[in-house]
From TrEMBL:
<keyword id="KW-0732">Signal</keyword>
<dbReference type="InterPro" id="IPR001087">
    <property type="entry name" value="GDSL"/>
</dbReference>
<keyword id="KW-0442">Lipid degradation</keyword>
<dbReference type="GO" id="GO:0016042">
    <property type="term" value="P:lipid catabolic process"/>
</dbReference>
<dbReference type="InterPro" id="IPR051238">
    <property type="entry name" value="GDSL_esterase/lipase"/>
</dbReference>
<dbReference type="GO" id="GO:0005576">
    <property type="term" value="C:extracellular region"/>
</dbReference>
<keyword id="KW-0964">Secreted</keyword>
<protein>
    <submittedName>
        <fullName>Zinc finger protein</fullName>
    </submittedName>
</protein>
<dbReference type="GO" id="GO:0016788">
    <property type="term" value="F:hydrolase activity, acting on ester bonds"/>
</dbReference>
<dbReference type="InterPro" id="IPR036514">
    <property type="entry name" value="SGNH_hydro_sf"/>
</dbReference>
<comment type="similarity">
    <text>Belongs to the 'GDSL' lipolytic enzyme family.</text>
</comment>
<dbReference type="Pfam" id="PF00657">
    <property type="entry name" value="Lipase_GDSL"/>
</dbReference>
<keyword id="KW-0378">Hydrolase</keyword>
<keyword id="KW-0443">Lipid metabolism</keyword>
Length: 281
């Protein structure tokens, strides 16, 4: 979604990942995302190496040190960072690749859905404070989509309808995250935090003429639910919401970003959409 937003904002190319960003291009933006990573450090560990949020924040700090060398001092660097737009979308894997897979993680037996959501948001709050302390001032926080409606959950529960228990757990997280945005804006008045209601935005997919099953053949082994390597995806890719059992297609991401940038409904964002966040002082 960061790449689509970059295009919307007029960037000539994709925002480079941290691993390959060099020279002055880091002043244009850096992508710190990592597949299967989460708020919690152990999230996604059964899938192999990943850069969890704490490490992403460390990478961001290292980028800042490189910026200081480029612009000459920390004051000028901070002034630059204060104008930057930060997009933070994390937490889905803390359910998909943690809480919802008890064969790999104990969190499901240790915490109720409410307790787990509280635990996640408390840790997330500290991580966002670190981001603020490193100079971020315009931060859009993406809530979680309707994970109970993704193909993986439908297959796991052998149903064609969204799994209510999963979506209820997701909404607990989203409600706490939205409240956190209020707290952050109160405690850090020099910054602007906004909440993007991905749960509501993702619900529109069911009202459109999109197919809610994977575009590719999905694996049932190590990379369970992901596309089988080396096999071509479906021909009618534009008609699908998901590539595999988890990841949305470009169409799904475009719709989400368009509504995050310019809210179609008042419930799409709180307290403002991304277009107004960019313009904020």
């Amino acid at each position: 979604m960061a790449d689509i937003l970059g295009q919307l904002l007029g960037f000539d190319d994709y925002i480079p990942p941290f691993a390959s960003a060099t020279g002055r291009e880091i002043l244009q933006g850096v992508n710190y995302a990592s597949g299967s990573a989460g708020i919690r450090n152990e999230t996604g560990s059964h899938l192999g190496n990943r850069i969890f949020l704490d490490l992403q924040l460390q990478n961001h700090h290292n980028t800042i040190l490189r910026m200081v060398d480029l612009v000459g001092n920390r004051v000028a660097t901070n002034a630059h960072l204060n104008t930057c737009l930060y997009i933070v979308g994390i937490g889905s894997n803390d359910y998909i690749n943690n809480y919802l897979v008890p064969k790999h993680y104990s969190t499901n037996s240790m915490y109720t859905p409410s307790q787990y959501a509280t635990l996640l948001v408390q840790q997330y709050a500290q991580q966002l404070k670190t981001l603020y302390e490193d100079g971020a001032r315009k931060i859009a926080l993406f809530g979680l989509p309707q994970i109970g409606c993704i193909p993986q959950e439908l297959q796991k529960h052998n149903t064609r309808k969204c799994v209510d228990s999963t979506n209820e757990a997701i909404q607990l997280f989203n409600e706490k995250l939205k409240s956190l945005v209020t707290d952050l804006n109160t405690n850090f008045p020099q910054a602007k935090f906004t909440y993007i209601n991905m749960y509501s935005i993702s619900s529109i997919m069911s009202t459109l003429s999109f197919l809610n099953y994977p575009c590719c053949n999905v694996s049932t082994t190590t990379a369970e639910g992901q596309c089988v390597s080396g096999q071509a995806p479906c021909h009618l890719r534009a008609a699908h919401v998901f590539w595999d059992n988890f990841h949305p297609t470009e169409n799904g991401n475009v719709i989400a970003i368009m509504r995050a940038y310019n809210s179609f409904l008042p419930s799409d964002s709180y307290p403002m959409d991304i277009s107004h966040l960019i313009q904020s002082g």
